[in-house]
Structure formats: structure tokens, C-alpha cells
């Protein structure tokens, strides 16, 4: 009997990737399998791309949790925020002086984890979205297979920096003369990327009996807003601008997928894990670049409570109790 092609998709969301990593760490602990062994393809955007890349090297998700805890405050300049006028200084930088944060702490942290690993070292097929600012085209970094021979030579560090280069937050990443911004510009929830890749390459493979996708949110906040003035500058929008496009994109994607179920010529199942509902007080603490101790403790607790519920669902346990079909090295 043929097996389904299994994909894990992980949303973008800055430091909220701590929630996603903790959720997956709990699943690894409960079900006794590492993420890499359970999914044929790993697909992640921005912070979700960093988690997917780590998983493809069989790095335990508990170590990824420690990565966020140890390096998040430096990446998002928490020390500067707590100085008098520090938050205003960072906002001014974001608006007019080259972006809110330096890439140096993130690069240093990624180099400590990924070292000199290349995409060729991946144990899974990959889809890591970015956006090519020179060609104005979406770009998906992949593990090479068949006639696709573009990315195996690229470093994990460079690809991680490219997918997470959020405009005005972190610098654009240059790789081999091309310049890349955050994949969240077009695929913050990359589940359609995964479906398209399956249709493009794997749907005709006789070894697979359909497609199964598990999608992980990055601790989505409750929206929308109270009434605001109609004419808003960037300083009025601030982080809510990025929440608006990422949440809107994600919701439209999930609606589209719900209409596809039962309409394709192969078995197709997908499940989305959303975090437990946040209170207004929690909404005010959690943000994509709030790496304070209070925020990170809350993200961990929300992940633990979400995992407590989700691990009991048979449809979720299925993803972690069954192993992948293919190793890309043998494809």
C-alpha cells in the first residue's frame, strides 16, 4: 500500500517562532520521533524557515527553543529598548535610518547552529520562501532534486537570513548577486507553497497515495482593531501593518484550501494547529519583535497548553506516529 506525501508547514512571525519550536519539541517528546523522520518535506517562512532548516538537520526542537531563548533578546535589541528613549530610537531607525535591527546578532546566532552546512546536507525536501527584490519574483529555496540544481551549494545561514529579512526590521540578504527579502511578503503561511510543490513534482509519483499537510501557526494574535484615524503614516501602523498582511494572507490561504478539499484527483488532507485564544492582556505582550522575558515565558506557556490539547487529537498524532516515505538523497 502506498503512503501519503507528508509536509510540515511553519508560519513566519519573528520571536513567536519560540511558540512553534516549543510546540514541536513537545510533539517530539511525546511521540518519540524527530520532526525530520516524520515528514517528506519541510516548508517554512521567515522564523518558520529557520525552524524548518534546523529540523532538516535533525536538530532537536528543544535545542531550537534554547536558540530563541538565548539569542532572541540580542537579535531584537531588548537591552536598547529598556534604555531611556531606546524604543523611540529604534523606531526612528526603522523609519529613516536603515532598518530597526542589525543582522549581526542573527547571523552570529545562526552560524553557531548551522556552522558551514549546505542545503545539500538536508535530510528532507525543502521549500523555504523568500522574495527576490531585483526580479520582483517569489523565490523558493529547495533541496536539489531531478533537474533542479540551484540551491544545494547555498549555505543554511544565507538561506535562513534571506527568508527572515523582514523589510524595515532586518537588512535585505544578498546571495550570489540576487537580493532577498522575507518570504512573509507573499507566503507567511506557506501551505499553498507546499501544495504547489506537490502538484509540480510529486503528484504523479506512484509511490505516493495523496498529500497530507500539517500547518503550524506562530501564535497568531487576536485581531482586529479599534477605530483609528483614516490617514495613517508608517509610525501609526508600526507592527500592526505586518500583522495585517500576514494574518490576512494566512486566512485567505486557509479559506482557499478548505474549498479544494474533495475537489482534487488525489487524496488530500490538511490540518492547521492554531494556538489557544489569547486574552487582551496577552495580545498586548506578544509581538513579532518582543523578546522580553515576559513575552517569551508567555509564548512557552501558550505552546505547552496548545500541545496538551493537540497531542490528544488522533489526526495530529498521526503525523508523528508515521514516518516519511522518501529520503531526498535517494530520490
UniProtKB/TrEMBL annotation:
Residues 8-195 form the PNPLA domain. One of its GO terms (molecular function) is hydrolase activity. The keyword Hydrolase applies. A motif (GXSXG) lies at residues 44-48. GO terms for biological process: lipid catabolic process. A motif (GXGXXG) lies at residues 12-17. Signal peptide: none annotated. Keywords: Hydrolase, Lipid degradation, Lipid metabolism. The active site is at 46 (nucleophile), 182 (proton acceptor). A motif (DGA/G) lies at residues 182-184. PANTHER family: XYLOSE ISOMERASE. Belongs to the patatin family. This is Patatin-like phospholipase.
Amino acid at each position: 500500500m502506498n503512503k501519503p506525501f507528508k509536509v510540515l508547514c511553519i508560519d513566519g512571525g519573528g520571536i513567536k517562532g519560540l511558540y512553534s519550536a516549543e510546540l514541536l519539541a513537545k510533539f517530539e517528546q511525546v511521540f518519540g520521533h524527530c520532526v525530520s523522520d516524520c515528514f517528506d518535506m519541510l516548508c517554512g517562512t521567515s522564523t518558520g524557515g529557520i525552524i524548518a532548516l534546523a529540523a532538516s538537520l535533525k536538530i532537536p526542537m528543544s535545542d531550537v527553543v534554547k536558540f530563541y531563548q538565548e539569542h532572541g533578546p540580542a537579535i531584537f535589541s531588548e537591552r536598547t529598548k529598556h534604555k531611556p528613549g531606546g524604543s523611540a530610537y529604534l523606531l526612528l531607525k526603522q523609519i529613516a535610518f536603515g532598518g530597526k535591527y542589525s543582522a549581526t546578532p542573527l547571523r552570529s546566532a545562526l552560524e553557531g547552529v548551522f556552522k558551514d552546512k549546505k542545503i545539500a546536507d538536508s535530510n528532507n525536501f525543502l521549500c523555504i520562501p523568500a522574495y527576490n527584490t531585483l526580479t520582483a519574483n517569489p523565490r523558493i529555496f529547495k533541496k536539489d532534486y531531478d533537474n533542479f540544481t540551484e540551491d544545494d551549494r547555498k549555505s543554511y545561514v544565507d538561506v535562513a537570513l534571506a527568508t527572515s529579512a523582514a523589510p524595515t526590521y532586518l537588512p535585505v540578504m544578498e546571495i550570489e548577486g540576487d537580493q532577498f527579502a522575507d518570504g512573509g511578503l507573499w507566503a507567511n503561511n506557506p501551505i499553498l507553497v507546499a501544495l504547489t510543490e506537490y502538484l509540480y513534482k510529486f503528484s504523479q509519483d506512484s509511490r505516493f497515495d495523496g498529500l497530507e499537510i500539517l500547518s503550524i501557526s506562530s501564535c497568531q494574535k487576536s485581531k482586529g482593531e479599534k477605530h483609528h484615524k483614516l490617514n495613517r503614516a508608517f509610525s501609526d501602523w508600526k507592527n500592526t501593518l505586518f500583522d495585517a498582511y500576514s494574518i490576512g494572507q494566512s486566512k485567505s490561504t486557509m479559506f482557499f484550501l478548505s474549498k479544494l478539499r474533495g475537489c482534487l484527483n488525489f487524496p488530500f488532507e490538511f490540518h492547521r494547529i492554531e494556538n489557544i485564544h489569547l486574552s487582551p492582556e496577552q495580545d498586548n505582550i506578544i509581538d513579532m519583535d518582543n523578546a522580553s522575558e515576559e513575552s517569551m515565558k508567555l509564548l512557552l506557556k501558550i505552546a505547552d497548553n496548545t500541545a496538551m490539547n493537540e497531542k490528544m487529537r488522533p489526526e495530529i498524532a498521526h503525523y508523528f506516529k508515521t514516518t516519511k516515505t522518501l529520503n531526498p538523497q535517494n530520490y
